[in-house]
Amino acid sequence: MPAPFMSSEEYDERAHTLYNDARYDEALAVLREGLTLYPHAVELHIGVGYARLAREEFAWARRSFEEALVLDGDHEDALAGYGETLLRFGQTADALRAFRRVLDLGYEDDLELMLQIGRALFRDGLVGEAKDFFDVAARQAPESAEAVALVGFAQHRLGEDEPSIATLRRALQLDPDNAEARIYLGNILYDRGELEAALFHLDRTAPEDHWEELGIWRLVELKKTIHRLKDDDPDIRRWEARLAELAGEPDQIDDMLAEIEQKAMEDAQVDARNQLELFGQMLAGLADSRHDGVNHRILRDGRPYDGTWDEIVVKMRDAAMAWSGRSIHEYMMNEARRGFSLTGVVIPTGDAESFIRGSADAGLLRILK
Q1: Where do the structural domains in the chain lie, given as residue ranges?
Q2: Sign of torsion, CA 228 232 238 240?
Q3: What Rg value do the Cα atoms of the chain yield, rounded?
Q4: Do 320 and 313 touch, CB atoms closer than 8 A?
Q5: Pick the CATH number of 1-107 from 1.25.40.10, 1.10.1740.10, 3.40.1030.10, 1.10.150.20
Q6: Where are the alpha helices (DSSP H) in the chain?
Q7: What is the pLDDT of residues 9-29, one digit of tens each?
Q8: CB 3.0 to 4.6 Å from 174: which of 4, 47, 145, 314, for a disulfide?
Q9: Are 52 and 33 in contact (CB under 8 A)?
Q10: Residue 305 contacts residue 315 (beta carbons within 8 Å)
């Protein structure tokens, strides 16, 4: 047994420092040592719960929070952590009761606690409930850009775009360096078609501010279309480097799946060649019909486009004012990148028909005929 040279508070402080540095294993070791000396120290049980939660050991985390609540049933940090673990097990009603108990105990003025609970609810898709806690935090600390921004995030997820934009702009007035709010606002403006405004905000972030690919794809697209930057521009390259970082290196399982996919594609190509030999004349006739000027119609963003597949893509490109005068291939490549960032569906760009059908499969347009 270790010598009792530290108090339970000192063990808790040391573990807290390690936890803040994301050194969860070391924090857990310190907390366990402390509990051998102070088994009834509530703070140490709570610390174990949060360390377990960070390591995604949810059952063990729940047990630690329950032990803390046995010792002090009204401890606000234990209630918040307990509620968060209950969400992981789908026990939403019990989690909400634990969170509301924190409010009943009068901890509305604990900004960090209100934001912690709100974020946990937001991650679980309980956006309305999350907004309630964000609102409490913003009322208690109206100067907190983080609290105000989180209200804006929730408003957007609830379909309240105009209030969301106003709230996020207020957050940026409080803290112009709040990258999370700026990225979120840029994406909202992009979705509304306010491309220059979206570029204004996204361009005021750094690559390391982004932890999702969508905002980067959009920023690169806007830089190329509005600022006319080329693919080899140093500014484009630094954003593409961040995309590569976020994508990460493929692991052994990814490699194995890629090999399986490649083998399946090769087998499909063999089958296709056999089919071509068997039905060569029929396929040739069908190929001819693709170029006979037959008109098609699609619907994109509420606007119809008529013509051959090639003519439709040209009209789509020309409708995107920023792409007027650029090549069809460049346009299709850009739209395929944007489509992938929005839907995760790979859109082929080898020819106009494949591009349109792929876009339809991704839900970006409808083929009417």
Answers
A1: 1-107, 249-289, 290-369
A2: positive
A3: 27
A4: no
A5: 1.25.40.10
A6: 8-20, 24-37, 42-54, 58-71, 76-88, 92-104, 111-123, 127-140, 145-157, 161-174, 179-191, 195-202, 213-225, 234-247, 252-278, 280-289, 309-319, 328-343, 352-361
A7: 999 999 999 998 889 899 999
A8: 145
A9: no
A10: yes
pLDDT tops 70 at residue 150: yes
Q: If we measure between CA atoms, which residue out of 96, 75, 71 comes closest to residue 84?
A: 96
Report pLDDT digits (tens) over 198-251.
Answer: 999 999 999 999 988 889 999 999 998 898 988 889 999 999 899 888 876 555
The b-or-e profile of 116-148 (16+ CB within 10 A means b, else e) is bbbbbbbebebbebbbbbbbbbbeebeebbbbb
DSSP letter for 244, please.
H
- List, in sequence order, every residue forming a beta bridge with 298; answer none if it has no partner: 305, 367
Q: Are 38 and 2 in contact (CB under 8 A)?
A: no
| Per-residue confidence (pLDDT) for residue 203, from 0 to 100 | 94
Instruction: Give the whole-angstrom CA distance, residue 314 versus residue 316.
Output: 5
Taking the C-alpha atoms of residue 1 and residue 197, their distance in angstroms, rounded to an integer, is 62
pLDDT at 288 over 70: no
- Dist CA 127 CA 206 (whole Å): 28
Residues 121/87, Cβ–Cβ less than 8 Å: yes
| pLDDT number for residue 290 | 46
Q: Which amino acid is at 270?
A: V
Q: What is the pLDDT of residue 44?
A: 94
Residue with structure tokens 């484009």?
Answer: 236
DSSP secondary structure of 166-234: HHHHHHHHH-TT-HHHHHHHHHHHHHTT-HHHHHHHHTTS-GGG--SHHHHHHHHHHHHHTS---TT-H
What pLDDT is stored for residue 264 in this prediction?
A: 58
Nearest to 314 by CA among 325, 300, 299: 325
pLDDT tens per residue across span 91-143: 999 999 999 999 999 999 999 999 999 999 999 999 999 999 999 999 999 99
